[in-house]
Write a structure and sequence with these properties.
five-stranded parallel beta sheet; single chain; alpha/beta; Rossmann fold
Length: 373
């Protein structure tokens, strides 16, 4: 009995020593902090408009948004919001045409972070909105980072009800059709997104706009941890993702599921339901769907299975839309991997400007604008 107790003590002590050594080494190497990401945003934060089931920024504010990856600043930009709490992506002086526009926006544009313009002072929607303005149409960009199709649909419903919008333009990233719907919780020190099903969180820490880069990095450094426990949690998440990926490949090989990925089918079906609702609300002649290019198209090391899954999902999504609507596919836009942030994945300003140029030249998009009345 005594010998067994001694063995247990020795085993426990050995494990503790191993734990502390591993923890010390990982902290010395700043791991997994070097692989971390921290997003900081102006203290006004983002919040849920529960009455309309949409997400907003603070009204008529200047925002600063900083993305820090691996301890370095990936992007740092500012933008202004309008009186409704959305990013101002154009200033259209429509009043000069003697048209009454008292908080009325003929055209509503919605989407996720790519349409909101995350990472840049410039949004690709500028050329589109300028063309609308030149034709006498006032527009508003209600895009919000991370929006699912349900969130976009809710923002279109809000714009029709509260902003008198008659025309809808919805822009998606191919992989965005499988996004979960989420809500936003705003607290004094942070705003965070939490998805409905998986309960995954994405945090925006609140800051003052005037902080220097050194102060920014100091704040970000305190938001992430190094050591064995954080590393084990990261490994756990990685293994969970890889297990799901292997299972999907096996299921597809034995034809246990269709050509899409079973784990995302529920979200895609939900997306189909909500885009169909929006088309019905605005009418198919007043609805345009835009498919945006993403960094995955320009990478050389993208997983074939991942690409195939996204393409199959998108094909199924488009084929399931029961109404004939105009679709402007911008994925052939001439960009390169250097037009995107390496770690964050969003376009740099030059990338957004190239997408804006492609949108401006799109025959389908121009046809849609020309036919507007």
């Amino acid at each position: 009995m005594k010998n067994n107790l001694i063995k247990l003590v020795v085993l426990f002590s050995s494990l503790c020593v191993t734990f502390f050594i591993a923890d010390f080494i990982l902290k010395s190497l700043y791991l997994p902090k070097k692989q971390s990401k921290v997003h900081l945003i102006s203290k006004e934060g983002i919040f849920s408009d529960n009455e309309n089931n949409i997400i907003k920024f603070g009204s008529s504010k200047e925002y600063r948004h900083i993305g820090i990856y691996g301890g370095g600043i990936e992007f740092d930009y500012k933008f202004n919001t309008d009186e409704n709490g959305f990013r101002k992506t154009i200033s259209c002086n429509i009043e000069d045409r003697n048209i009454k526009k008292d908080n009325t926006y003929d055209v509503v544009i919605t989407g996720d972070s790519l349409t909101q313009g995350t990472g840049s002072n410039f949004s690709w929607t500028e050329s589109l909105e300028q063309k609308l303005c030149n034709k006498g149409f006032n527009s508003i960009n209600t895009a919000i980072p991370g929006y699912s199709l349900e969130g976009m649909s809710n923002s279109l419903k809000y714009a029709k009800k509260e902003l008198n919008s008659k025309i809808a333009i919805l822009a998606i990233m191919p992989k965005g059709i499988s996004n979960e719907h989420y809500k936003v919780v705003k607290e004094p020190k942070r705003s965070y997104i939490i998805s409905n099903l998986s309960k995954k969180r994405f945090v925006f820490w609140h800051i003052d706009n005037y902080l220097s880069n050194d102060e920014i990095l100091s704040i970000a450094d305190k938001k992430v941890k190094s050591g064995l426990l954080p590393m084990l949690l990261k490994v756990q998440d990685s293994l969970k993702f890889k297990t799901m990926k292997v299972k999907s490949k096996v299921d597809r090989y034995f034809k246990k599921v269709d050509s899409r990925n079973y784990s995302t089918n529920l979200n895609i079906e939900n997306s189909i339901k909500h885009i169909y609702t929006s088309i019905k609300e605005y009418g198919k002649d007043n609805f345009l769907l835009i498919i945006l290019p993403t960094n995955d198209l320009y990478k050389t090391d993208v997983d074939e299975f991942y690409t195939s899954k996204i393409n199959n999902d998108l094909e199924y999504f488009l084929n399931s839309i029961q109404e004939e609507i105009l679709i402007a596919d911008l994925r052939k836009c001439q960009l390169s991997s250097s037009d995107f942030y390496e770690l964050d994945g969003h376009p740099k300003e030059n990338g957004y400007r190239k997408i804006s140029s492609c949108a401006s030249k799109s025959k389908i998009l121009n046809k849609f604008i020309e036919n507007l009345k």
